[in-house]
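Continuing the batch. This is chain 6 of the set; chains 1 through 5 are on the previous pages. Same settings as before, nothing changed between runs. Recording input and output for traceability.
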Amino acid sequence: QVRIVESGGGLVQPGGSPRLSCVVSGLALDAYAIVWFRQAPGKEREGVSCISSTGDSTDYADSVKGRFAISRDNTKNTVYLQVNSLKPEDTNVYYCTTGGRYPCGSHYYTSPHYYGLDYWGKGILVTVSS
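Output for chain 6:
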């Protein structure tokens, strides 16, 4: 059984830089890309970032490019999302997902299930507020 657990969220002041973690069990993680999504109440889910199975390729949504950094440690079955210079509009539930074997790209953001992202965590809330 695949289990995905996100952590590292909470209340963060504007400009803060927490690191979100995603631990995956029950899956050979080094065979799959990892994608982070986020969703605010009343808004559509948004693809944020992707990292390839080996970690040598990454992708970012325009809204976070230059502020977020994704990385992975396959020896720990863990993926990280360093979120920097947070703004109030970054307040979202952040979700980690995996299961896709395709290269990173916006196709994951627009059609996650079509491209194999079948395993999702429950999400972690990040609230940016002073």
